[in-house]
Structures are given as structure tokens and as C-alpha cells.
Here is the input.
Amino acid sequence: MDVRLGDTLIMKKQHPCGCREWKVLRTGADFRLKCLGCGHEVMTARSKAEKNIKKIVREGEDQ
Here is the structure.
């Protein structure tokens, strides 16, 4: 899966704050993600995050 810095990920499950959107802050073997609802940052394994991604929204791309 092609996930880049600055992408917004829409996940299958929501964060406890109710938001499903996460901003990618770091990529590699694991991701650092920031919740766009409450600002909470998490570090999670790439395989676990990729399994839960519903949609990738790129900055500057027309949808």
C-alpha cells in the first residue's frame, strides 16, 4: 500500500473521540499517526495500520 507523509487516512474503526481521520507523520516499518479529531498521536506497526485503512486522501489531488 502506498502511504506517504502528509496523507490523511480514513480508517474502518473510529478513535474513541469519534473521528476516523488520521494524518501520517512518519512512515517506515511503523507509522506515526495523529488523530485529526483530538490531536492524539500514536505509533503503530505498518501491517496493523494498513489492515485498518478504508481510504487514503492525498493533499493536492482532486477527488
In short: The first strand starts at residue 8 and ends at 11.
